[in-house]
Amino acid sequence: MRRALGTALGVALLATGPAAGQQEAAGRQAAATGTAAISGVVSDAVTGRPIAGAGVSLFGVEPGGQELAIRLSVLTDTRGRFVFVNLPSAPRYTLIATHPSYAVGDYARPAGASTGALIRVDDQDLSITLADGEWMREANIRMFRLGAIGGRVTDERGEALVGAAVRIFSHRMVAGRQQLVPGAVVATDDRGVYRIPRVQPGRYFVAVLSVQATVPVGVADGPRTLPLGGLETRRPYTPPGSPPDARGASVDVNGRHRLVLTNFATPPPPGGDRQRAYAPAFYPNARTLSEAQGIDLDVGASRADVDFQLAPVPTATVSGRVTRGVEGAANMLLRLMAPGSEHLGFGSEMGTTLVEADGSFTFLNVPAGAYTLVASPAVADTGGSPAGRLAWSVGYGPALGLSMVYEATGTGVMWWRSEAGATVWGRMPVSVGDANVTGLELALQRSASVRGRVVFDDSNQPDPAQRFLIMLEPANADTSLGVPNTHTAAYDETHAFSIGGLQDGRYLVRFQPFRGWRVKSVLVNGIDVTDTGLDGSLGQDYDKVLVTVTKAGAALSGVVRDRDGRPAAGAVILFPVDPQRWVDYGLTPDRLKSTSARSSGAYALSPISEGDYYVVAVPQGQGDAWQDPKFLAAAVPAATRISLTTGDARSQDLRVSEVVVR
Amino acid sequence: MSFLLLWLLVAVAASPRSGPSDVVRTQVRDAGRPPTVGTASISGVVVDDAGPPRPVRRAVVTLTGEGLRPSRGAITDDEGRFTLRRLPAGRFTLKAERGGFITSVYGAKRPGRAGTAIRVTEGQQIADLRVRLWRGAVLSGVLSDVTGAPVANTPVAAIPAREVTPAALTLSNNHEAMTNDLGEYRIFGLEPGTYVVRAGARRIGGIEIPVSVENALSEAEVDATLAALSARGRGPIAVPTPSGAASTAATLTTPGTSVSAAPIYFPGTPVAADATPIALASGEESGGLDFAVHRVGVATIRGSVAGPSGAPVPRAFVQLSTSTAPMLFASTVPAPVTANSGPDGTFVLGGISPGDYRLLVRADVGPPARVGGGAASGRLWWNSMPMSATGTDIDLGTLTLQPGMTVSGRVVFDADATAPPVDPTTLRVLMQAESLGDAPTQGRGRAMTTNARLLQPAAVRADGTFEVTDLVPDAYRLTASGSALTDSGWWLRSAIWNGRDVLDAPIHLAPGETIRGVILVFSDRRTELSGTLSAPGGEPLSDLFVLAFPADAALRVPHSRRIRAVRPDSGGRFIFGNLPAGEYLLSVLNDVDDGEWNEPGFLDQLVAASVKITLADGEKKVQDLRLSGGRD
User: Fold this and answer.
1) How close B489 gets to chain A, by Cα (Å)?
2) Across the strands, what pairs with B386?
3) pLDDT in tens, A81-94
4) Are B65 and B93 in contact (CB under 8 A)?
5) Dihedral sign for Cα atoms in the order A579, A583, A589, A593
6) Which residue of chain A has the CA closest to B75?
7) What are the distances in angstroms from CA A33 to CA A27, A30, A89, B610?
8) CB B441 within 8 A of CB B432
9) 0.95 exceeded by pTM
């Protein structure tokens, strides 16, 4: 599931989901035919009942082919059954079941078992090999019903807050570290009611978002109100002949700044001594995450009583100016965020504003509290659509003009690049009490850039018509550092690239989107930084970076057996011997791999970079547990140590053993 | 027609009157310019539509207008009050909005409709304005499948049943909600009116994306297929299909019936015309609109494309779009289904829902066009045919293409100078196809992308001639553009062909037809028709509409540039800027919806109670209107 989704189409792409492309598939059924067949049953993993009308899609690769040549979709009958016939023999078929009320289920791998995992398995695991005349009879798929979280949001008078954004958050292991990650976002309806569907089992924190977006007078454009989750039905009145306009309404506050009202609660009118506003609230009406109460959701369970009653709090005005890099900073987006939540995506700000031409900035309506003032040339967000719409609600069109979406291992990453301030970044703590804060000085740092070229170490070069994508992933997966990339790099004969916008962190070089290609080595002045990455905190540019990409690697395959020696389905995890590589491997780990064994027990992993590894077979429910370094440590005693060099094709049979983390 | 009240008029003798013109050319939004500030103020209260009206707190009011930079906004307090200060003199629109209510402007007689402009003089303190907000109506219900299970995560749209214009396509996005895990949907903030409710069509940015096509399996089909698999040796099996024809060895076919999750309308029909309309009064909640969705059988269409010589044409672009126009439910039009012909000229269009379509095939067979350059003609071949799909597969056989067609002419400037006042080579002429599937301005997704190269405007040559090539049969609207036009005040006044102005009616290009000698006349003279509307007693009236439409019934066509409605401002003054010269009828209406005049017969019934005026080229005409006291 690792692939680049391209640029510009951005948000829309994530919304299309697995159905995209099937229209085209219907017109391409003239594929080769054969004598193999697959049949099975789709059932509820908890109740065991068959699921009627589930969509089952079969994807196949023709022998020797790289592209998906076969795509077929059926809907299960009333007994949950499906069957595909007259299939050509092929090394790899993949089955995926979809149903609006269930998590996506893959053959032989129960979806939803992997709760607590942001990063999922790679695309090697679901293979079914079919020979001529073979009929695979029990390609059964179990699906886990999804849950829901809902409630009602009211103001201090008990009146419904309409169109307010509500978002769920959960703790996940990312790059070996526990991180709070944003999840689905919806808007309240005309009764103040919200309901977030399709929630996997787990512990969640629920927040009513409330961003105070300040725009200087004289700025023509501003944040926009875009519907969240299709629940917003407001139809703005547009006089005939005027262009379509989704700008948020704005109100004057001090003659020099306006407050823009988008997908958040409208505050009381300005006036009087101190302006009041609604602060973001975590359930139950907590200001901070540490005071928040988690909501534990079982498989298929739902909560409809996660209610909020918000009350406006006194606010202050926070102002200052940027020092250094002022020229490039005009119209740069500044975000005021709770300490420790800087990596959360758009919508989690307390306030936003734009740097003015003279370098000054002003945040209106800031409640008392401790904050981090964040200025960054790009912001990445791991929330999918419609969360991306929040970027428009807090940002400024031209300031966030470019965006792209790519899919890291199992998660969508949306990346917003700032035209203004593209070469600087800055960060400082801000403490707000009862009084206005003035005279802040935000020292902007020059952001480092990386220039170099790509070398393909294979005689089969990719199609020159394609574009390639080099991405710099923050090693610690802190998306507030952005994911600087070659968003506009053309693939010319020199394969040169240039990437700007590094911030105060370490970045690993990743390569997309050619199937099979991956980074083999990254050299800076002859020094190998493949695994250590490029340090942006030094502020120095990297020139002549040589990125070698390869298709070659080692391959590992074998059979998984249970204690009695019978072939068994299970998950196979490959991880490096060096514990330092169990953390800080960015968003798409190179040396950690997980796959599911087929029901025949066969598994295969490739390509694998050279190195010393452990490989272990665990029950399928632990297939995604590799993201926890404690799990890996506990798995070592049961694991088999193996050294792999490029070109190896090794066979290693494994016994399933459950790993217990103490 | 229920809201239409037609007023009988007397024309007040036109008096030559001088005064500042309020017509200001639309300005590009002006960043960086200093805000306009004055000493006037407007204050008032926002109330709801209850009886008696209650104040609406936390509503946002916004004042906009020419010369007001930036727009001004305020939030109402707990008593619904607001004040906007430091305003310059001008003519402004005041808008109020709040979640769950219908965004409305001051003076609107109905939710969401045009209001009354507020005329503010320097230093004036306007107090006690009452702005009414109507609570939006609500549609809600539960979506289920045929087994009664809830259908989650599916878009449900409320579509105004009067939606007739393509422009409404993009707006319908705003009336959409997703079902939750319980199958519940709730669409709120709706204007009163009649709606149909539709489930199941996904759209992105106003474009409906094709629904997925799957094969629905029945128990009998699965049983039969499994039995055949058990009974066979290791060979292929005959796949049972509903048409009875077993699949051929050349095709990989799946058992079952080809179906798609095509849109289903309340109370459960795939046919838009069979939907039950829901009438909603202002603020009404219509709940319990529960219905079941089912999948609809779809067809596969096959054919092959050949050139005029009979040779197969690879990479031809094949597009199937909904044909019916005018469409009752424009927003139900799915994005065209498209395909490209293969090396042997064959193509397959899959997943075609039952309905009437137009098939259009285009092949770009010439050298690549240069962007904006005078493209070589004769590079486009086409074929077009109407067709119906019923759910069974169709084989169209061979479609023979023919060369594209041409429209040519020259531009002239209505000026005394010998040299053209605008460099002709900066001008572009565009033929916009009327049919929905072809119109480049409609942004029809993939079709637009693929055809972009073929729909480029033609550049005017230095000698003033132009040639638009590679056209296919359709009705076209001719437009001209160019940066020199927006800056200089020159505009396309007429496009004369065969003695008629094709700006007033589309050009119908028949198969094989070539049109030559179209004369595009550019002018820098602008008309203005203004006046004051007054009651029989002479007091100015602001809460009515003044409608101008052509005296010649032949020019009363939908979307005519000669039909316009305005509301007088708070002083009763109305202005029509730059109507084309000609004879007009002026009517005064109690209320009119934007575009309502496109309905057949609407204008004809206004003729008897209208005032006729003649507007000469470049004329600034003042025509006051006074109601006669009677009401029709």
Assistant:
1) 18
2) B358
3) 999 988 888 777 77
4) yes
5) positive
6) A269
7) 15, 8, 9, 72
8) yes
9) no
